């Protein structure tokens, strides 16, 4: 059974920020609206807390993969294959909570949308940093566009999360991951 914050996070993940009502959240958390507001002051604060918990738990694997050792192409391969698995795990919402948390919203919710956008930007920065390290280590060609490659992998991850939400299985997502790994592999520095 998830913690109250975990239950709120799953509700936001499943219904979206605007789709998750206070009644949905309090029912999932097993608390009253008064308790929710006493603990978090607002729905946006609860969502920020749920996003942080998701980053520490569900999302931490991506950061560990990117920080791990090994050739950059192997690291990206592990990230994409693991994402295909994680995005389709049974018994929880599909896709990635941060990738789809708040893509569009009402003007009054722009602050939380900006917060989530910043979280997605952090992932792109981690990807770009790992590609730059791969260039510096001689794993990738010197002329590789690290920023462009990071955005490409980020786009693939976001595509996979949307397809998972639309019902794609792990078996459906793995070929996408393999094609992306092949594209990243095109930038491998030939041994020589």
Automatic annotation (TrEMBL):
The keyword DNA damage does not apply. Residues 7-46 form the HTH tetR-type domain. InterPro entries: Homeodomain-like_sf, HTH_TetR, Tet_transcr_reg_TetR-rel_C_sf, TetR_C. Keywords: DNA-binding, Transcription, Transcription regulation. Residues 82-164 form the Tetracyclin repressor-like C-terminal domain. PANTHER family: HTH-TYPE TRANSCRIPTIONAL REGULATOR YJDC, TRANSCRIPTIONAL REGULATORY PROTEIN. This is TetR/AcrR family transcriptional regulator.
